[in-house]
Structures are given as C-alpha cells and as structure tokens.
Amino acid sequence: MLNVLTFIEDASRQGRVLLAVLVDPGKLSLNKLRHLLTVAESSPPDLFLVGGSTSDAIDVKACVAEIRSMRPGIPVVIFPGNETQVDEQADALLLLSLISGRNPDLLIGKHVEAARKLKRSGLEIIPTGYILIESGKVTSVAYMSQTQPIPRDKSDIAAKTALSAELLGMKLVYLEAGSGAKWPVPPEMIHAVKLELGIPLIVGGGIDSLEKLSLALDAGANLVVVGNALEKDPELLHRFHAHLTTRSSRFQQN
Asked: Angle formed by the axes of helices 236-253 and 210-219, to 10°?
C-alpha cells in the first residue's frame, strides 16, 4: 500500500512538484465529477483530495467510491471539513489543525472528538498545519471556521506560523487562500514560508491559470492544489498536467 506522506516527501526531496485535485462533494454534482475523472484519465493528477467545509459525510463517501471506481490508480486523501468526514475507502487523511486562527475547536477540539474513529479507520493520518491567507473575499472556510486569515502582506507572520507547525511535529504545511479565492497566496509569502521549512509545503486556493500555477511553483510549493477552477473548466487539467510534465522533464535534464 502506498504511503502518501512518504510519496510527498520523496517528491519534495527530488524537486518534483505534485498536483492534487480537490473535489468538494458539496459543490460538484456526480455528472460533473465523472466528467472530471474522465479528463483525469489522460491527464492524471498525483492525488485527489476529497472534502470541504460544506460537504456531507455521506457525499464524501460516495465521491471517494466514484474516484476509486473510475481512477483506481490515483491516491485519495480526505481533506476534512469536519470531524464526520472520515472514509475508510481512502488512502489517507490530512489531520488539519487551523493554526492561523485561534478557534480552539479547529486547533484541537474536533480532533479529540474524532481521535478514536480515526485510529480505528486504518487510514494513514498526516498531521498538517493549516494556514488561511487573505484572498480578497470571505471564503467558505474562513466563514465556517470563524477565524481571520493572515493578511497577505504579512509574510513574516505566515513564515513563523508555518515554522511553529514543524516544531510541533506536523508533517506538512498547507497555505490556503480558500475555494474561489479572488487572489492566490502571494509568491513572496510562499517563498518566505518555504525558506523556514524542512517539511513539504502545500499551496492551494485561487490557482486558475498557468501563470498562477507557475508563480506558486517558482516560489517553492511542493504540492499545488486546484479545485474551484476545475469545477468551472475540467479541461484546464490537461493544461496543468502538460505544464507540470514539461517542467519535470526540464528539471531532470538539468
């Protein structure tokens, strides 16, 4: 069985950037999901993330089952919006601690409620420092979590927050602008955070073009997450996949 964290860490050490497709069952109909999975046959992402702040646990299970059925070779990781979104069909779960906010439920409270269920699930549990970044609008995750994102011009705060996640023993850091973000995480902030970290860095939210993808990669992201843009235009996955494949080939040649 694939160890997802090892897969991400190995890619990070090799300088290979990974692409994850975020599927929010609360937003994506079954027909649209199937179309996206069809596109993914010729342009496969490295991972699927499943979940969201407004998703129902039953819908998460149905979504994971559909991905398993149509794209069985791609790892599926639960990206939980709440403590009910645990599905044993998946490969792993990002155990998110919202360290940019001060809501105790999302720092540790919900984790206590879900702890035994997570242990019994058999899923690979990956402790992840989750950091919300100002994106020009109130995103669903900011509203539902009742927390303020870090201002986008405060790279030093983001960097120190990310470093604290690593020192606390978390295995990944996730910089999140939020679903449908007006602006993605600034490249300057990604770079500042990456300089502090010895663990892989995930960046997501507002990445809806090759230019924004390239900026995140050049700034130091190890794994880029795309969701809302593919809900609107699944064919964008072809362009993202081709760009990453070309970039990887150039890196190996150098």
From this structure: 40
